[in-house]
Amino acid sequence: MNKKMIYLGALLFFLIVPFSLLAADYGLTESANAANLPENVNLMGMIAKVVGTALSLVGVIFLILFIYGGMLWMTAGGKADNTKKAKDLMVNAVIGLVLIFSAYFVTRFVVSELTSASQVVPGGSTTPTPGTSFSNGVFDKV
Question: Domains of the chain: which residue ranges?
């Protein structure tokens, strides 16, 4: 019962606090204007950069683990348990790299699709209707 209350409290905290922070005005708009920062920031682009950077860092960590496993294997000295430990570490590092690359490409695909779907063309439509093309800001019949 006590653990459930802690988890419920943490969940409510992490759901409520961000929205209350977004609603509050702490003078950040005036500070951003004084620093000549751009007002319209592409949120999807920022999220894509953060996710890409995080996945790159995790990929580097798995690469280091793979190199460390290779060093363990070379210095195992013929001991079966050390060799098995090194092999397992290298296999797990390769699996981790495959997962990281998969996550990167899925994230890249999703962000590109969301970005292209959120571009509004004149007339309020996000995509041309079938049989039309979009050129020079005007729909043309194909």
Answer: 7-118
Burial 88-115 (b: 16+ CB within 10 A, else e): ebbeebeebbeebeeebeebeeebeeee
Phi, psi of 126 (to 5 degrees): -90, -20
Say what the pTM is: 0.50
C-alpha pair distances (Å), 99 with each of 92, 95, 102, 103, 108: 10, 6, 5, 6, 14
Please name the helix (run of DSSP H) or strand (run of DSSP E) that holds residue 134, with its range, or none: strand 132-135
Q: Is there a contact between 100 and 55 (Cβ–Cβ < 8 Å)?
A: yes
pLDDT in tens, 73-91: 999 888 999 999 999 999 9
Helices 80-117, 43-74: axis angle to 10 degrees equals: 170
53: its two tokens: 């950077």
Sequence letter at residue 67: I
Residue indicated by tokens 């995790």: 58
